[in-house]
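Q: Here's a chain of 398 amino acids. Please give me its 3D structure as tokens.
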Amino acid sequence: MSRFRLYPAPAQQAALLELCRHARYMWNLALEQWSMWTAGRRPAPGYVEQARQLTEVRGAFEWLRAGSQTVQQQALRDFDQAVKTFYAGIHRRPTWRKAGVHEGFRVVGGQASRVMKLNRRWAQVLVPKVGWVRFRLSRPVPFAKSYRITCDRVGRWHLAFAVVPSSIPAPGAGQIVGVDRGVTVSAALSTGDLLSCPGMSNHEWNRLAHLQRQLARCQRGSKRRVRLKVAIARLHARARDRRKDWVEKVSTDLARRFDVIRVEDLRITQMTKRPSPRADPKRPGSYLRNHRSAKAGLNRGILTGGWGLLVLRLEQKAAGRVEKVNPVYTSQTCSRCGHRAPENRESQAVFRCVACGHQANADVNAAINIAAGRAVSARRETPSWVSSKREPQHATSA
């Protein structure tokens, strides 16, 4: 999507929030109808039936009739599409939308009559029941049949046009690169480059901890608690903007420089799950240590490194040129001789092969293995791609 920063007037902000409220209400109402369905009962109403019910509801409630019927119908249509993608296995199950978290709605209509350019820096978009709202022209406005207006937790409004951008053409030089994602180094390339995703500074981390301590002492529903939540959200939004900017720059650079981009096939959702509690067999009702704090720190490092977003943007910009490689033992295998052993990984950053003495950065060594498409399936097993290149004395027993 092509996203622009929206600058509504104070009166327009109140009207936009009311439209967000209506869209969220219709989505949750449709989700409630769909969730109540059980085996043996009539199927949940679809979009056509829900649109008919919407007409009746608008006639009964003044606050809903004051809103835009286009926005409300589109929320029902979006939910119907979400259900179809869920049953098709493309997307996850639709969930409830919460106030302050899911603030947004979609408008479908001709772009020519809804977008007007004011000058080279500003333009305006026509929003139902709101009027013309200005937005900043940070890039050319693409042609799209629909657009979405959202508000983040900091209070910033954005306008996004539903259009799929064209992918970046391959350079045609035949270059292949491997990308190893890590916590200390966000992305290590097989070329030797070490890329780190910018996050919060030490000052911002200290301020975040201070604000969270203040938030814990606030009374629920107080104005002070609302101000602190906005301040915390502003810090997270700043870090999120830096992460997105880094991902866009890195993905564009890789798509322009290399023909084939190979990455690890990681299941980030499974990797960032909380550890399950372990019951203590000797003391009923008690639990053993499951290192939850350490796992929370690891999860935070994975999520703040932009692992999933980087691969997603690479697949969109370099369509058909991103290959996923099995990551098994790529960090324990020597990229020069192929010897694999846990002792090769001397530390988190140093790789020293115990067979040939090759020494390199551990992440770069893994990235070279990924670029070669190398993966092994068993510990201390000689890979087939090395059997013809290694000397017999370098082989290890299974």
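Q: Can you summarize the key feature?
A: The longest helix spans residues 223-257.
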